[in-house]
Amino acid sequence: MKIKVKNNVDWVGKIDWELKKFHGNEYSTHRGSTYNSYLVREGKNLVIDTVWKPFAKEYVDNLKNEIELRKIDYVIANHAEIDHSGALPELMQYIPDTPIYCTKNGIKSLKGHYHQDWNFHPVKTGDKIEIGNGKALIFVEMKMLHWPDSMACYLTGDNILFSNDAFGQHYASEYMFNDLVDQAELYSECIKYYANILTPFSSILEKKINEVLSLKLPIDIIATSHGVIWRDNPIQIVEKYISWAKNYQENQITILYDTMWNGTKIMAENIASGIKKSDSKVNIKLFNIAKADKNDIITEIFKSKIILVGSPTIGRGITSATAGILEEIEGLGFKNKKAAAFGCYGWSGESVDKLSNLLTKSGFELINQGIKCLWNPDNESIEKCIAFGTEISK
Fold first, then answer.
1. Which of these, 213, 284, 289, 370, has the minimum number of CB atoms within 10 Å of its CB?
2. Considering its fold, how many domains does the chain have in total?
């Protein structure tokens, strides 16, 4: 299947409706995803990125229906991760000598994945190849967005930015263009993608976006590697990224908890009640860590100005679900956010101190030393939780 992007540029990728987990089991894809590959036919013919390895044969068979493979002059590998380069070994069996353009780090990564010494051509920012009909492909390194090898490329004349992982979403749709899909769904998947994948690189991303914008290149289309293609006001997603990169927060407090016998859950609900009692305008969201999707939780943390994390004490520590989400939080390096801890205990009560230490280690500013309740909260403890929530809101 192909979809016309513009003039002599076609989408020749794969829509994956069945995908529910990505990066192993690290990222939930409730709405599936796409693996976007592009075929450009000018004086020279080129393929920009491929698809995930499970669809390699299907991809190459479909490509054969569009073009004689030996007529492909260049292959562009914007990023070596398997979901973009997975079909390269299948494709290169047919065109083993065709040049592959990628960054120096891309060569290392592709060789590491596939152990092949293909006809690599390293490129850096500003390099370009003339492809005929007065058009050229210009390369822009996007190091650490989100791998060391990442790059984008820009097609002059058609004014298309092939952005790879930047500005994408895990979102399956037959429509394939931003102006045709449900806008609420699109926004939801965009912010989830940024929060869970690109947050650690926000400072780099902001500089890189400003660098690209300073070139004053007209951008009519942003052709991503996942999800829909931006053709209606494509700069809208660039503006969102600039906003998200600036230590983003909304008027939201997110409460995360795990619970054994509902004690910590009761604490969470009454802390929320105290917050709402003091501030009716703040958005409060509660998540049972062991039951909720972790990537959805991370997205809500990204939107929050404060998070509260609760766990009962178990084995002088915290529950495994709580430890897992805190490990993920630390790796994402959130900034400009505050936090506090809470939890029930039966005899030793270490969980709150441990949570506070982990939150501090993850870069959160502690509001206080937290609150703990012995056994299941009684009326007095519930009142203390409500007061704790009121204090947090202030």
1. 213
2. 2
Total length of the chain: 394
Looking at the DSSP assignment, which residues form a beta bridge with residue 33? 16
Q: What is the DSSP letter of 317?
A: B
Print the domain residue range for 309.
Answer: 252-393
Last residue of a domain, one of 190, 221, 244: 244
Rounded CA-CA distance 22/29 in Å is 7
Residue entry with tokens 């829909």? 228
Q: Token digits for 222? A: 């942003």
The reply to whether 81 belongs to the active site is: yes
Respond yes or no: is residue 170 known to be catalytic.
no
Residue 122, strand partner residues: 102
Choice among 10, 73, 81, 90 that is catalytic: 81
Closest CA to 62 of 41, 90, 81: 90
Does the annotation count 113 as an active-site position?
no
208 and 279: one domain? no
Q: Which one of the listed residues 193, 248, 257, 345 is annotated catalytic?
A: 193
Q: How far apart are CA 214 and CA 207, in angstroms?
A: 10
> Is residue 121 flagged as an active site residue?
no
Same domain, 138 and 7: yes
Tens digit of pLDDT at every position of the chain (394 positions): 799 999 999 999 999 999 999 988 889 999 999 999 999 999 999 999 999 999 999 999 999 999 999 999 999 999 999 999 999 999 999 999 999 999 999 999 999 999 999 999 999 999 999 999 999 999 999 887 777 889 999 999 999 999 999 999 999 999 999 999 999 999 999 999 999 999 999 888 888 888 777 778 899 999 999 999 999 999 999 999 999 999 999 999 999 999 999 999 999 999 999 999 999 999 999 999 999 999 999 999 999 999 999 999 998 899 999 999 999 999 999 999 999 999 999 988 899 999 999 999 999 999 999 999 999 999 999 999 999 999 999 8
Please give the model's pTM, rounded to 2 decimal places.
Answer: 0.94
136 near 128, Cβ under 8 Å?
yes
DSSP 133-189: TTEEEEEEE-TTSSSTT-EEEEETTTTEEEEETTT------SS-BTTTS-HHHHHHH
Same domain, 257 and 220: no
16, 74, 79, 241: the catalytic one is 79
Catalytic residue among 27, 38, 146, 257: 146
DSSP-based three-state secondary structure for 234: coil
